[in-house]
Amino acid sequence: MPLPPLATELPPPALATLSRSQPLRTPCGDGAISWRSWGEGEPLVLLHGGSGSWTHWIRNVEVLAASGRRVLAPDLPGFGDSARPPAGQDADAIVEPLAQGLRALAGDAPLDVMGFSFGGLTAALLAAAQPLRVRRLLLVGSPGLGLRSDRLPLVSWRQAGDAVGRDAAHRSNLATLMLHRAESVDDLAAAVQAANLPRDRMHRRRLALTDILVRTLPAITCRIDAIYGDKDALYLNKLPQLAALLRSGPTFHELVLVPDAGHWVQYEAAEAFNREALRLLATAAA
Fold first, then answer.
1. Could you give phi then psi for residue 132, rounded to 5 degrees?
2. The overall pTM is greater than 0.90
3. Which residues on adjacent β-strands are paired with residue 32?
4. Vertex 63, ends 59 and 68: CA angle to 5°?
5. Who's near 91: CB < 8 A, 6+ residues apart?
6. Confidence of residue 286 (pLDDT cuts 50, 70, 90)
């Protein structure tokens, strides 16, 4: 049974941010990609992480738009309110419908693209496949580096008996995987997580567990920068290896490690993240 629109399950803070956006749609398979746009000016594309939606950027979109950018944030195909891609169940299947959507919304000019986690991997594949499409690439907590961590002890929210149990499972998983500080696992984070996870229809994703990003970096011709939380659960005790692998890309410039922040760095340390993202984008433009 199809789920109701994402907005019907979002909390008031997310709905307030949503109300200040413009809804857009572009074709995708048997349906459409759902986009949201904030602000005016040079486009900045934000690609969310796995099992997510535009709400992974809930604490960033309006700050970035206020800097004079037109922020375009889709629900990637197979997530949120967007249809599945026409073929495939992983990041590589998303590249073509995403590129077509960007062309429809922003023309053929090269764009700045920022991708979080799975969205960073998708953005890298896009930049490699269509080098004239991406002008600058900013990776945020992106996987695909071949740095396998120990399996994190996540709780099955689907097996929870009631709403209280599901909320407890979501909060536990946020603390384990996404957020470092206990106080960061707040009501907004839990509500966004609860709204997003049932809308993930891309269950066969495996590319993030490989070294595909490392193998893709040499094919990217635009400037690449990266922001990671220095307490990212996926890379604990592996930050030197992460830095070396990213710097193996010939066009890689700067890695920023945000102190005391986990994987969902742009949520947990939004002020620091927004400041560094805007600095990197301005540096790249110089």
1. -85, -5
2. yes
3. 27
4. 150
5. 118, 121, 122, 125, 205, 207, 208
6. low
